[in-house]
Amino acid sequence: MNLILEEWHRFCKSIDSDRCYTVSELPLLPDSVKWIAIKHDVETNVKKALKIAEIEAQHKIRATFYIQSYLLEENCNLLNKISNLGHEVTYHYDVLDSNAGNIKKALNEFSTTIKKFKELGFPVTSVCPHGNPMMSREGWSSNKDFFRNKEIAKEFSEIFDIVVQGKEKISGKYQYISDAGYGFKVIADILNNDKIPNEDILIEDIENLLDTTKRRYSVVISTHPHRWNSSLFSAKFVKYRFMLIRKIALLASKSKFLKRIMSKFYFLAKKI
What we know:
Layout: H1 5-14, E1 36-42, H2 46-58, E2 64-67, H3 76-84, E3 88-93, H4 95-98, H5 103-119, E4 126-129, H6 145-148, H7 150-155, E5 160-161, H8 166-169, E6 174-178, E7 185-187, E8 201-202, H9 206-212, E9 218-223, H10 232-252, H11 256-264
Parallel strand pairs: 1-2, 1-9, 2-3, 3-4, 4-5, 6-9
Antiparallel strand pairs: 6-7, 7-8
Helix pairs in contact: 1-2, 1-9, 2-3
């Protein structure tokens, strides 16, 4: 599947907007509600996120935009525009990776960033961890370990992590679908796929993605706005560039030395 804005427009036009909820609303819904939650992990290029927010608002869809902390202040005007369209703007955290697994430093960064979001007019009631495929880790599995920590989950009980705590706090069964890797997949086990390899199910095209919204389960659909483009040529170019870089990175990761070097520059992965 090529990630083209026209296709996203077609998808949004075709789904029932009355079934769409922001992530923060999900724990409040009863089992009987069959919902759709669209979320976006914003890791760079907030202008592209705004384009997607405008498409969704045009079709009366409210979504959730998870923003990395380094984007917050310099893009406050754009984020306010997203929020004013009716969307949820909240935190896409990577505090364990940014602090080399140090839980105390991670806690301090998380607390400080939550306050910053609130001060800028974006109260945080749901969060989502960043994956960081380029990161070399010793002593922690991924950023998911932050909310796996029972003390931290208790300290921030008013906030829920859609990835780590979704099955615990959301009623009823649902599927988690992501465009990670430049193509939509049904993620078999979003909670544990940082520890246990899973057989994800590929979604071939936008019609198949629409089909997932018509089945008996509710669905979370997760995208990365910076990977969506206005033309087929641009979409194909960035997809092939990503696949080439990923192949090189996978080869380099077989060397412990090169993996440590790549880990120091993991933030560059956000750009692709």
